Amino acid sequence: MPEALSDKHHTDLDAVVIGAGFAGMYQLICLRDRLGLSVKVLEAGDGVGGTWYWNRYPGARCDSESHAYWFTFDPELMKGWEWSERYPEQPEILRYLNYVADRYDLRRNIQFNTRVTSARFDEAANRWHVRTADGESFTAKFVITAVGCLSTANVPNIPGLESFKGDWYHTGMWPHGGVDFRGKRVGMIGTGSTGIQAAPVIAETAKHLTVFQRTANYSVPARNVPLTPEFKQWIKDNTHTIRTATRETLNGQPFRIEQRKALETPAEERERLYEEAWERGGLQFRATFEDMMASKEANDTAAEFVKKKIRQIVKDPKTAAILSDIDHPYAGKRPPIDTDYFETYNRDNVTLVDVKAAPIQAITPNGIRTSDAEYELDIIVFATGFDAMTGPLLAIDISGRDGLKLRDVWEAGPLNYLGLQVAGFPNLFTITGPGSPSVLCNMPVAIEQHAEWIADCIKYMNAHGIDTIETTPEKMAGWVQTVNEVASKTLLSTVQHSWYLGANIPGKPRVFMPYAGGMVPYREICDDIAAKGYESFVLSKARATAPA
Ligand code: NA7
Questions:
Q1: Is any ligand 1 atom within 6 A of the Cβ of residue 194?
Q2: Whose CA is nearest to atom 18 of ligand 1?
Q3: Which of 3, 175, 344, 526 lies deepest, with the highest CB count within 10 Å?
Q4: Residue 191 sits in a domain of what CATH number?
């Protein structure tokens, strides 16, 4: 059936934005309010929030500090909102994003409960055709994906899940009504950032919590506290300073990596500095020494410090040994921060199971069976992460020129230029796409940079009568090489089983996906390209612009 005849509705727009999290919301502000374009944001959920809409698991909290984890484009917006704690909890972030949606009247251009299933480029008309699961279609000159990096839940394919008589949940698709753990025997698979946040909270109410750990993980105390009235006032008085700080640091955080080397610091002094960082808590621990991520020997000093802390906190020596038997450098995988994670193993109602030693073989009607035991459970929680970065994009059937499929172009890994574009897909922009700093940066900072760059680019195109912007295979090859080279200078590339490399998803190509060179150099590269009239892209004029 011709597409037009099967359409429930059809709308023609300047731009379609896919996703209404931080990225989609800000892109809407940039395009609608600053450029005056007709824009529709299509969102699968029934509210704004994206990642923070779906990830409602117990203990869900941001690891970036609240005063740096928000939009900074408008000082009045910053002054109008007050965070309550050092790290914002998921419900508070969601309230914040709803506040933003209200303040800028965003909902009138967001269509909720609308899952995009395909986007197809019509070369003759120079239009993208976007279709939804409900059979609606939209045409637009530009498509901007704002689908998040960690939004496609990974439920591992363990035989027998369908036979389980109890309930199971993935942390990234958590029921909106919550889950009552009282009186329940709960099994949780996964000890990444999510599992580490969830375990202490689940243990508070569950009858028993069994944590199934495959890879032991580092974690540093978050030291979450309510914000004092003085600090809240400081935030209001220093909106410019906060914005500037997060734009001047490599990872978009409001703190700098110390200009000292672990290996040049006497052992006693080094220990004192780690102790101070441990007490201060948070992601800042990674900033204690500048050589921590560049030298294995330097990193070992941090790794040993955290392992020693784990052994001190956890009373049962066998459990402590399993938790501290960590096989990768500190922060080589995303470093979690926690509230009483290791302390949780001192509770009588919590058990750790080492599934590296005795792998999970099956889910049975009554629980989880490993190679040496069966654990009876009422609830299984999958804190098993995401098909990160590429998953959400490949979940949409995206085809470019001549029917070229994104999934074919990315068969061996996510070819891209700047993490913003893919050759063969003109006028398609990917906010925080693979190849950009994204997950290695404080996300709202990365998102603001991308949304503004894309809006500036579209403004330039409109001002110069340009119909398409597109990258080339050569530019993509060069950029992917840069991404690899930059990663290879850090310990990040030495960890073979991280989701940064796609290694958590069976069959996924192992390619280091985020740009590890830091937000500051990345921004300079992007700004330079814009200042030179986007010369490293192919810009074309004189195409038809009428809808098909
Ligand atoms: P992560 O960091 O990908 O962690 C997933 C965890 O689940 C990790 O411990 C995995 O072990 C474990 N896992 C995954 N599949 C299995 C199977 N089949 N059996 C046993 N264990 C398994 O996801 P998170 O949600 O914690 O965090 C994602 C990001 O969100 C985080 O980095 C922050 O940026 C925010 P593995 O390490 O693969 O052995």
A1: yes
A2: 156
A3: 344
A4: 3.50.50.60
In short, whether 298's Cβ falls inside 6 Å of ligand 1 is no
Residues 423 and 513 in one domain: yes
Same domain, 344 and 412: no
Assess whether pLDDT exceeds 50 at residue 513. Answer: yes
Same domain, 515 and 368: no
Tell me, yes or no, whether 536 and 412 share the same domain: yes
User: Which ligand 1 atom is the nearest neighbour of the CA of 503?
Assistant: 38
232 touches 373 (CB < 8 A): no
Two tokens, residue 379: 């609830």
Distance in angstroms (rounded) separating the CA atoms of residues 171 and 168: 10
Give the position, in ligand 1's atom list, of the atom nearest the Cα of 384: 7
Q: Ligand 1 centre and the CA of 483: distance in Å?
A: 23
Q: Which of 385, 419, 445 is where one domain is finished?
A: 385
Q: For residue 505, report the distance from its CA to the centre of ligand 1, in Å.
A: 10
pLDDT at 132 over 70: yes
- Mean pLDDT in the chain? 96
Helices 519-531 + 443-463 axis angle, to 10: 0
2-16, 258-272, 513-527: range with lowest mean pLDDT: 2-16
For 422-447, write each residue's pLDDT tens digit. 999 999 999 999 999 999 999 999 99
In three-state form (DSSP H/G/I as H, E/B as E, the rest C), the secondary structure along 358-396 is: CCEEEEECCEEEECCCEEECCEEEECCCECCCCHHHHCC
| Number of domains the chain is built from | 3
Boundary-marking domain end, from 356, 385, 414 = 385
Q: How far, in Å, is the centroid of ligand 1 from the Cα of 385?
A: 4
Domain that includes residue 171, residue range: 153-217+336-385
Note the pLDDT of residue 10: 85
Task: Calculate how far, in angstroms, residue 504's C-alpha sits from the geometric centre of ligand 1.
Answer: 7
pLDDT range class, residue 496, cuts 50, 70, 90:
confident
Pocket test for ligand 1, best of 169, 504, 510 (most atoms within 8 A of CB): 504
355 and 308 assigned to the same domain: no
Mutate to test the pocket of ligand 1, among 57, 337, 384 (most ligand atoms within 8 A of CB): 384
